[in-house]
Design goal:
- By secondary structure, the protein is of the alpha/beta class.
- It folds into three domains: 112 residues, Probable tRNA modification gtpase trme, domain 1 (Gyrase A, domain 2), CATH 3.30.1360; 131 residues, tRNA modification GTPase MnmE domain 2 (Four Helix Bundle (Hemerythrin (Met), subunit A), Up-down Bundle); 160 residues, P-loop containing nucleotide triphosphate hydrolases (Rossmann fold).
- The chain is 45% helix and 18% strand.
- It has 14 helices and twelve strands.
- The strands form two sheets. It has a six-stranded mixed beta sheet with strand order 3-4-5-2-1-6. Strands 8-9-7-10-11-12 form a six-stranded mixed beta sheet, sandwiched between helices.
- A hairpin with a 6-residue loop joins β1 and β2.
- It is flat.
- It starts with a strand and ends in a 7-residue tail after the last helix.
Length: 450
């Protein structure tokens, strides 16, 4: 990190301004070479008007912001150049800076430097990415809570609790002659480990809320041909996005859309009607339908009120029995031939999509199923990163190893090995213990100027 990096921090295109960010020990010196005003002795966090020049020729009229170490995002000297927002002029200014000693930043390198320089931890870095990608107010608030360190504090408090256990064990092992030090036994460790276990379980349980807020609920509409799947999608989206006809097999590929319920996105997918078919293209669509069932968070299975359950219906019901699902019984305006006693009644929503009836009942069923209205916007701190959730589950496995060792009356120094492993696992989430490959992978997901 001895070099000075540069990147365009705004979307490249035609606009009012573009911002080029420079960070590193030579940031001010390099910009000073190509700016008409002397920046070397200026105070930190000041803005200066002037021109970017090359070979004494004016390239652009700009505003230059100077921010000196350590009170910057990366904790390094940082300069931001506000150019006119044209593609050619922005690229030209970037080219001039590269020619004068800057290196083009890698994706996420500014945030990576902020992490490596100790300004933020990995959880807070993840919050920055979530803020950039937030698509709803709840997702934005989740990102803000992650960025401000609330979630990091929960993990660090857990590590502190484990650290206290390790310190006491070490004192007992290394200095047994100290009479004023409490004798640490497995019986004393067990309640503390159970406290750690409960906190980890709470974080994992609450992570589902984080995933829902951040990514939405992946919802797939399935059913046989002509049950109204495309009509339901159109009704929910309030637009004619999917083609609706009476011809079976009209929908051959997926059609997608997004709606919001209590600020939570429903990522809805309308699939091909599930039936046995000789049509090659339609059969591929049916295969995709089954693939989306496996991936979905929620399945809406549509049946027709005027048609009795057959073998195919029962096979589909068996396929989705372990998923979160809702049975939508459509065409309630027609004669009843469907025996609802063969279905789970608490899963049923009655619909007449043609007459626009039952849609609010369907939305309310989803609200109850996912408890969307009670997700607290005031002070929630949810883990939403899938890798972090996986690490927490590994932590639970390690806790079980510790408890098993205690039950088997293993020596305290052997228990200590597993406790240290647990402490290190939790450190992976905040980045206090990390692998270079993991760090590079994470920050590569950021855009160039961040």
């Amino acid at each position: 990190m001895d070099d000075t990096i540069v990147a365009i921090s705004t979307s490249l295109g035609v606009g009012a301004i573009s911002i080029i960010r420079v960070s590193g020990k030579d940031a001010i010196n390099i910009v000073n070479k190509v700016f008409t005003k002397n920046l070397l002795n200026q105070e930190s966090h000041t803005i200066h008007y002037g021109h970017i020049i090359e070979n004494k020729q004016m390239i652009d009229e700009v505003l230059v912001t100077i921010m000196k170490s350590p009170k910057t995002f990366t904790t390094e000297d940082t300069v931001e150049i506000n150019c006119h927002g044209g593609i050619a002029v922005t690229n030209k200014v970037l080219e001039i800076l590269l020619n004068n000693g800057c290196r083009l930043a890698e994706p996420g390198e500014f945030t990576k430097r902020a992490y490596l320089n100790g300004r933020i931890d990995l959880i807070e870095a993840d919050g920055i990415m979530d803020m950039i990608n937030a698509k709803s107010e709840k997702a934005l608030k989740l990102a803000v809570n992650t960025m401000n360190g609330s979630l990091s504090k929960k993990i660090k408090d857990l590590r502190d609790l484990i650290s206290d256990i390790l310190v006491n064990i070490s004192v007992n092992i290394d200095y047994p002659e100290y009479d004023d030090t409490p004798k640490i036994t497995n019986d004393i460790i067990l309640p503390k480990i159970k406290e750690v276990e409960n906190n980890i379980k709470n974080l994992i349980d609450e992570s589902q809320n984080g995933k829902i807020i951040k990514e939405g609920i992946d919802t797939v509409i399935i059913g046989k041909p002509n049950v109204g799947k495309s009509s339901l999608l159109n009704a929910l989206l309030e637009e004619n996005k999917a083609i609706v006809t009476d011809i079976p097999g009209t929908t051959r590929d997926i059609v997608e859309g997004i709606i919001s319920i209590d600020g939570i996105h429903l990522n809805i997918i309308d699939t091909a009607g599930i039936r046995k078919t000789e049509d090659i293209v339609e059969s591929i669509g049916v295969e995709k339908s089954f693939e989306y069932i496996d991936k979905a968070d929620l399945v809406i299975y549509l049946l027709n009120n005027n048609e009795a359950l057959d073998k195919e219906d029962k096979e589909i019901l068996d396929k989705i029995k372990d998923k979160n699902y809702i049975i939508g019984i459509n065409k309630m305006d027609l004669d009843n031939n469907l025996d609802i006693n063969l279905l789970e009644k608490e899963k049923i929503v009655k619909l007449s999509i043609k007459e626009n009836k039952g849609l609010s009942d369907l939305k309310n069923k989803i609200k109850v199923m996912y408890n969307t209205s009670s997700i607290d916007l005031g002070d929630f701190t949810y883990i939403s990163n899938a890798e972090n959730v996986s690490t927490l589950k590994n932590c639970l496995n390690k806790v079980n190893d510790i408890k098993l060792g205690i039950e088997r009356f293993l020596p305290i120094d052997m228990i200590e090995i597993d406790i240290k492993s647990l402490w290190n696992l939790l450190g992976k989430i905040t980045g206090d213990t990390y692998q270079d490959e993991l760090i590079d992978k994470m920050f590569s997901k950021f855009c160039l100027g961040k």
